[in-house]
Amino acid sequence: MDNLTKEQRHKNMANIKSRNTSIEVCLCKALWEKGYRYRKNYKKLPGKPDIALTKYKIAVFCDSEFFHGKDWEVLKPRIEAGNNAEYWLKKISRNVERDDEVNKQLLFMGWTVIRFWGKDIKKNPDECVRVIEETIFGMSIQEAETEEDW
Fold it and tell me: Exposed end of the chain (fewer CB within 10 Å): N or C?
C-alpha cells in the first residue's frame, strides 16, 4: 500500500477534519457565490448536515470516498489486505449504515437529502450547485401544482 511508518500514518489520520473540509469549503463557496444562504454543520438535524438550506429543507452532505465507503466492493478487499483491517472494515461499514439511518430520519422529517462525493465536488462544484438548484426548482414546481389543486 504505502511506505509510511506507524507514527506517520497516525499523524496523517489525526489531521483529518470532520468540519470545514476542503470539499465542504469548495461547495460552500460555490453556493455563496450563487446567492444561496445556508447553515453549516447544522446541529438541529440528525447527522449534522455539512450544509443545510433551511429555507428549502435541503440537507447536503459532502462525503469523502474512503470514510463513506464509495465503491465498497472494490474498496473492501483493499482494506482487508491492509493494516488494521478489522478496525477499518467495522468503521466504514458503520459509517455507511449511519448515513442510511440519517437519510431516513431526515426524509421522515420532510427534508430532502443530497449527498456528494468529495471528488465530484472538487472536480466540478458548479455541477453540484446545479443539482441543488434543480432540486429547489423541482420543489417549487411541485408546490405550485399542489396549490393549483386547491
Answer: C
